[in-house]
Amino acid sequence: MTTTHELGHLVGGWATGGRLVDVELRPWHLPHSRFSPDPRPLVTLWSGPVLGIAVPVMLAAIIRRPWAWLVANFCVLANGIYLALAWLSGDRWLDTPRMLAEGASPLAIAIFCLATIAIGYTRLRQLIFKTVHPAPLTNEATK
User: Fold this and answer.
1) Model confidence pLDDT, tens digit, residues 87-106
2) 82, exposed or middle or buried, with CB in 10 Å at 0-12, 13-18, 19+?
3) Which residues contact 127 (CB under 8 A, 6 or more apart)?
4) pLDDT tens-digit map of 116-131
5) Radius of gyration of the chain (CA)
6) For a tag site, which of 11, 65, 97, 139 has the least CB within 10 Å?
7) Burial level of 47, CB count in 10 A (0-12/13-18/19+)?
8) What percent of the residues of the chain are helix, what percent strand, and what percent coil, each to the nearest 5?
9) Global model pTM greater than 0.85
C-alpha cells in the first residue's frame, strides 16, 4: 500500500513539473516525498491515494487471482483509513492536513474516505470469508 501510494505522489509531482528534493521509500521507514517547487501541490497530494488505489486494482483486474484482489482491496481500505486517521491526527506532515492547507475540499476528502473505507472493507471481508469458508463442493451422487 505505501509503495503504490508514495509512487503516486512521485508521479503527480513530476507530472506537474515539481522538483523532487527528498524521498524515502525504504522498507520499515515512513515513506514520504517532498517537491520544491511543487507547482500543483493538490495534484501531487491527491495522486498518492488515487494511484495507491488505481494501480493495485488495475493489476488485480489483469492478474485475476483471489490473492491479487486481496491486496487490491486492502489498498483501497488502507488508503481511506490513512486519510481519515491523518485528518484526525492533524499532524501537519501527513497528507490530509497538507491537502486541507492547500485548499482541498473537506467534503471531497470525507467522501473519498467514506467510499474507500466502505468499499475496501466490504470487498476485503467478503474475499477473506470466501477464503476461510469456501462453498462446499456439491456431489451429484449424494443428492
Assistant:
1) 999 999 999 999 999 999 99
2) buried
3) 66, 69, 70, 73
4) 999 999 999 999 998 8
5) 18
6) 139
7) buried
8) 70, 5, 25
9) yes
